[in-house]
Specification:
The protein is of the alpha/beta class. It folds into 4 domains: 45 residues, no CATH class; 161 residues, Substrate Binding Domain Of Dnak, Chain:A, Domain 2; 146 residues, Rossmann fold (3-Layer(aba) Sandwich), CATH 3.40.50.2030; 240 residues, Rossmann fold (3-Layer(aba) Sandwich). It contains 26 helices and 15 strands. The termini are far apart. Bound molecules: FE(4)-NI(1)-S(5) cluster and iron/sulfur cluster.
């Protein structure tokens, strides 16, 4: 009986309001027929805790947990006397610490791998992009002239290790930060030392009875977040490029139609590219292909999801089946023979769904095990042991498929794989490879500004809808959009990753796209590749004509469907770098409190960027465009845009006549 009442309390999911992804919707309908529950269903039946949503509670000690009132935030304080601003700032800080820890731990793993490859202990990987190695080394003042590539690499390793372990001094990539931005950071003492130190200090300061001034906590939030953006994440990107190749535009398919009924389907979902690279080697192995054929399959089909998938489509054109909110639903196809996961954004709910459909679910990283999933440890010194075993398990499951299979027949082709280096080359051409043409097009107004639209999907909002509406509105207004992670996949599914999508852009942006042959939306890869946006912005400042600091640039950022603590760390490092950053879904701080005012305005007055919030994509676009226009005006380039649009209108009239 208890179960019945529980069941009857469950709100039914309205699939039409849950997602605009047709494949996901089709699988949600099938899941309901099959009696299978997903995060969509759980979100519908579980209301978010209203006190937690406002960040109005503290459980940092056992005198509490203390609960304040969001409607009267200054009406009371915690048992220790902590005010609402302290409590919110500490909660926010812990999100930053956790998010930054995730990215920097990932980056540190990449760096460990790099060391082992360079020292010859790991033979399965090698330096794929020596040019990038030299460029990164040179950017850190490491001598590259007439030196052995391995010596340069070892020096680079030692230098980059400071990103994590350094106790005093500035992290290596602080050298990439424009001078005026760095001056602001130094003034407020937020230049990161090493990430480990910053995260440790932030955890210390947010302990009961330590830092109880929201402004002081916020500065340590900035320092920790910057150790992610210009530290851990940037190292992850640069090292992955050096080891696995710097992305260049490549054609790739997205969506669930990438699964193939007559092949052994293997999905890799997570964040670290090394696992994926080795599975790629496994599925290319003639012996394993033969084993698949012997089992009656036409071949092995490797497909990515989430961030490591976004990285693999960018680097190799490996097909991508969907973003975060589709990881459970894709198992409902019954066609996934094995799913291998490593770290981050792996729902525990996967185990249950995998079990329902007989999909073999494997964890591979010592940091992440899931009850009910099998664990095959991925050991970098012998990676193929793990990845071959995953492939064999998939073949075995293929042979014994019991479930009826239903694969949504939807596949969206597009061009992925833009990098800071390629944007350089693409716009400048091989002879004058530089950011000058980008800056010129911004100065003359064809491109109004640049927006980074990134981050997760979240079952509290209609999947993909906020991303897609926002990006369409931005490009219509001549804002060039760069993307990463699950947002990139949302727009690729909506068809915006083709050069033909340029017709959806405003007259100025579409002219640039047509001249260069690029889509109006550029995918840069995974969430750690947000660091590519920082590097590109720094390059725009260095190239000249758009101000002296990152805060001067006509750029803005958004994570319209965010859900993870990593997103908060990313948001804070963009804000601390000088960028106006808008989040959707919800914002975990009570409006009109002092801490809120600091994040949403006070920081900007100090020379940083600021936060913004709205759940509405159209309003979000207008906020970002207004900010871009404000920056254009401050740079004195607002008139140029009016002129160029007028010229274009004249020309169009002439053409029409
Ligand atoms: Ni970013 Fe990637 Fe996706 Fe969000 Fe998760 S996969 S690191 S956190 S959900 S974009
Ligand atoms: Fe309450 Fe203060 Fe303890 Fe937090 S730290 S639970 S506000 S007494």
């Amino acid at each position: 009986m208890g179960k019945d009442t529980e069941e009857s309390k469950k709100k039914t999911l309205n699939i039409k309001d849950a997602t605009i992804c047709d494949a996901t919707a089709q699988m949600l309908r099938k899941a309901e027929k099959d009696g299978v529950e997903t995060a969509f269903h759980r979100a519908a039946s579980m209301k978010a805790c209203p006190i937690g949503a406002d960040s109005a509670c503290c459980k940092h000690c056992s005198m509490g947990p203390c609960r304040l009132n969001a409607r009267d935030p200054y009406g009371k304080v915690g048992v220790c006397g902590a005010t609402i601003d302290t409590i919110q700032a500490r909660n926010f800080a812990r999100m930053v610490a956790s998010g930054a820890a995730a990215h920097t731990d990932h980056g540190m793993s990449m760096l460990d791998l790099f060391r082992e490859v360079v020292s010859g202990h790991i033979k399965d990987y090698s330096i794929k992009d020596p040019i990038k190695l030299e460029e990164v080394a040179a950017s850190l003042d490491i001598d590259t002239e007439d030196r052995d590539i391995n010596d340069i690499a070892m020096d680079l390793y030692k230098e980059l290790e400071r990103t994590y372990t350094q106790v005093e001094g500035e992290i290596p990539f602080a050298k990439r930060v424009p001078k005026k931005t760095l001056e602001t950071w130094r003034k407020y003492d937020v230049v990161p030392r090493g990430a480990m130190r910053e995260i440790m200090e932030l955890m210390h300061r947010t302990h009961m009875g330590v830092d109880q001034h929201y402004e002081n906590i916020t500065h340590q939030c900035s320092r920790t977040a910057l150790s992610d953006g210009w530290g851990g994440s940037m190292v992850a990107t640069e090292i992955s490029d050096i080891l696995f190749g710097t992305p260049k535009p490549v054609q790739g398919d997205v969506n669930m139609g990438c699964l193939k009924e007559n092949e052994v389907n293997i999905i890799i979902h997570g964040h670290e590219p090394n696992l994926f690279e080795s599975v790629l080697a496994s599925v290319d192995d003639p012996n394993l292909i033969q084993e698949a054929k012997d089992a009656g399959a036409h071949g092995l089909n490797l497909v990515g999801m989430c961030c490591s998938g976004a990285e693999m489509i960018s680097r190799h054109g490996v097909p991508h089946a969907g973003n975060f909110m589709s990881t459970e639903t894709i198992l409902v196809t019954g066609a996934v023979d094995a799913m291998g996961v490593d770290v981050q954004c792996i729902k525990q709910g996967l185990a249950q769904v995998a079990d329902c459909y007989g999909t073999k679910l494997f964890t591979t990283n010592p940091r992440c095990r899931i009850e009910g999933a099998d664990h095959i440890e991925f050991i970098e010194h012998k990676p193929r042991e793990c990845t071959d075993a995953i492939v064999r398990a998939a073949i075995d499951r293929f042979k014994n498929r019991k479930m009826p299979i239903e694969i949504p027949n939807i596949k969206n082709p597009g061009i992925h794989g833009f990098s800071m280096e390629y944007i350089n080359y693409m716009l400048g051409g091989s002879f004058r490879s530089s950011y000058k043409p980008l800056n010129e097009n911004i100065i003359n107004g064809r491109i109004r500004g640049v927006a980074g639209v990134v981050g997760c999907t979240n079952p509290r909002v209609k999947q993909d809808w906020v991303h897609v509406e926002l990006v369409k509105e931005l490009i219509k207004n001549d804002v060039l959009v760069v993307q990463t992670g699950c947002s990139q996949i949302a727009l690729a599914k909506a068809g915006l990753y083709t050069p033909e999508a340029a017709v959806m852009a405003g007259p100025g942006l579409s002219e640039v796209c047509e001249t260069v042959g690029m889509p109006p939306v550029l995918g840069l890869g995974s969430c750690v590749d947000n660091s590519r946006i920082l590097t590109a912005c720094a390059e725009m400042v260095r190239t000249g004509g758009l101000g002296d600091s990152l805060a001067d640039l006509p750029v803005a950022g958004a994570a319209p469907e965010w859900m993870s603590e990593k997103a908060i760390s990313i948001g804070q490092y963009f804000v601390a770098s000088g960028v106006f950053t808008v989040f959707g879904v919800t914002y975990p701080i009570i409006e009109e409190t002092k801490f809120h005012k600091l994040l949403f305005g006070g920081l900007e007055e100090m020379g940083f960027g600021k936060w913004g919030f709205t759940a509405d994509p159209h309003e979000m676009a207008q906020m970002m465009i207004a900010h871009i226009d404000k920056k254009r005006k401050a740079l004195g380039i607002d008139r140029a845009r009016e002129r160029v649009l007028m010229d274009m209108a004249d020309r169009q009239k002439l053409e029409a006549a």
